[in-house]
Amino acid sequence: MPDSSMWPADYQSAAVFTFDLDADEIWNLRIEGDEEWDKPPVKTRGNFGPNVAVPRIIELFDRYDLNCTFFIPGKVAEDWPETVQKIHDAGHEIGLHGYRHVNPANSTREEEEADVKRSLDIFDDLVGTTPVGYRSPAADLSNNTLEILAEQGVQYESSFLDNDVPYFHDLGDDRLLEIPFEWSLDDWPFFGFHMYPQLSYQSGISSTGPVFDSWEREFDALHKRGRCFMLTMHPQLIGRAGRMDALEELLQRVLQTGDTWVTTGEDLATHWYERHG
User: For the segment 69-107, what is each residue's pLDDT rounded down to a tens digit?
Assistant: First the structure.
């Protein structure tokens, strides 16, 4: 039997739709590290996210009167302030995703702390709100990350893969909520691809249908068990027209249950602290 006591009244499960808005930053870092990547198509391919995909995502969720979560590097916010403002004005959550799209495990404690503070200040100055959520830009953390986030007032993070419901990290005097993610519920392994040069880990572009069939099956199984469906997407990948249609069909499937709480990471964290904190 599902444990619906975890969620607000009348809901059996939860679903959080998240978008990592890496834009051109994820490609700029490759260009800086290897001249082989220093080509016009590489420099511009990330622009599809802010220019085309984000408006499509905003329009989709607006039609269903739902909010989602965008994790955004501070550098992307500086480079695309109008896009970030549109996301905020549409009522969607903005979470931290590093300053640049680099692995925090390769930084000193001082560097990582400065990175978090800098990003918090950028969003506070840009949209007037301070993010309460964090997702690592590399799906990796240092031994200091959780403590730094808690010290800076961040309420939750989403980089662990060890559960399918939220739980607390015990940090001594502090606690930090974890909302886990899962690679099989991330679009990058399926759609992340570049021809020249190639990404070292890519295996080809997956067909849209089987990917979304897998995601729908996973949602159904999690809903049956009263768990949390956390979907991780990247606008420059998921924002292609056919994938957006498939995303809408998945969203409709989630809503058809009638008892799935479609929410943001921030609202889920607020509920969890109030109910389970």
Answer: 999 999 999 999 999 999 999 999 999 999 998 899 999
Residues of the domain holding 163: 4-276
SS3 (DSSP) at 8: coil
Distance CA 34, CA 39 (A): 11
Length of the chain: 277
Q: What is the pTM of this model?
A: 0.95
Query: DSSP of 119-155, one letter per residue?
Result: HHHHHHHHHS----EE--TTS---TTHHHHHHHTT--
Tokens of 103: 């692995």
User: How many domains are contained in the chain?
Assistant: 1
How far is 193 from 126, CA to CA, in rounded Å? 32
**Angstrom distance (rounded) from CA 137 to CA 145:** 12
| Residue 18 φ then ψ, to 5° | -120, 150
The tokens of 16 are what?
A: 């959080």
Looking at residue 67, its amino acid is N
- What tens digit of pLDDT does each residue of 23-52 get? 988 777 776 777 766 777 777 888 999 999
Q: Which of 239, 122, 248, 231 is nearest to 179 (CA)?
A: 231
Three-state secondary-structure class, residue 102: coil
Can you say how many angstroms the Cα of residue 171 is from the centroid of all Cα atoms in its chain?
Answer: 23
Token output for 277: 């904190």
d(CA 194, CA 63): 32
CATH code of the domain containing 145: 3.20.20.370
